[in-house]
Amino acid sequence: MLLSGCIAGVMAGLLGVGGGIVIVPVMEVALSMTGVDPAIRMHIAVATSLAVIIPTSVSSSLAHHRRGAVDLDLIRRWAPFVLLGAIAGTVVAAQVHSRVLAAIFAIFAFLIGLKMVLRPNDEALRDEIPRNPAMPVIPGLIGFFSSMMGIGGGTFSVMIMTLFGKPIHKAVGTAALFGLFIALPGTLGFIVGGWSNPDLPPLSLGYVSMVGFALIAPTTVLAAPLGAKMAHGLSRQKLNVIFGVFLLVAAARMASRAL
Predict the structure, then answer these.
(1) How many whole angstroms separate alpha carbon 257 and alpha carbon 194?
(2) Cβ contact 116:244 at 8 Å
(3) Domain that holds residue 247
(4) How far apart are CA 191 and CA 178, in angstroms?
């Protein structure tokens, strides 16, 4: 878990993904090795990942902000809808089986990863993100699916922002801050949802494993600025391909668990 925290921190800074796409699979394996009930393993992994994303998101977004790579105007417009979507996703996630969460995670990660690897230089659909009344649906869905999977939202929001003409480096920096609006309600929801579950392992706060949080969070916070520095040293194409390859590996891992 210490090692996964380092990797997750670098990925959070490099790709704006919050680190959950690393933490969730590793936590699931660690819990399986300690005999935790399979029905709640993914719930604990997702909840702990969301808790870790809170400090990681702050560390990563501050590092990007110092390089002028956070779109604060977009944050103000989208953050309330991301927050509402995250609350809804947490409510739904607490009611479904662990295999369902793993399958959702794998499907979305595979599709987005494939696009990033095969078409890293695709032209944007538009030159800027529209402001029409239907647009709040997009950040709402980002929050919904991200909180269900225990990730910071960068997995979806980076791709969507680049499709609408946002430069990849600014998309990554902005996505890092969106993670905070997903992780806060998501963590609270999983704490409440798992509060009275008798099958939880020791030192759990609802579905959040405090042991996992204590081991992973400090290393992700320390490693996130390094990832941000690396991101700003890469070209758009290289950053897209790295993002895509990582998603495909994570998708394969979670698909094997779901099946």
Answers:
(1) 22
(2) yes
(3) 2-258
(4) 21
Place of tokens 């959950």: 20
- Nearest partner of 83 among 177, 194, 168, judged by Cα: 177
DSSP code of residue 135: T
pTM for this structure?
0.80
From residue 201, give the alpha-carbon distance in Å to each of 28, 31, 32, 38: 13, 9, 11, 12
Q: Are 180 and 121 in contact (CB under 8 A)?
A: no
Show pLDDT as tens, one digit a residue, over the chain (259 residues): 888 889 888 888 887 776 777 788 888 888 989 889 888 888 899 899 889 989 988 988 999 899 888 999 999 999 999 999 988 888 887 677 667 777 877 887 788 778 778 876 655 555 667 677 778 898 998 888 888 776 777 777 887 887 787 888 888 889 889 888 888 988 998 899 888 888 899 999 999 999 999 999 999 999 989 988 888 888 877 877 887 787 788 788 778 877 8
Count how many domains the chain has: 1
Query: Whose CA is closest to 11, among 123, 131, 127, 109?
Result: 109
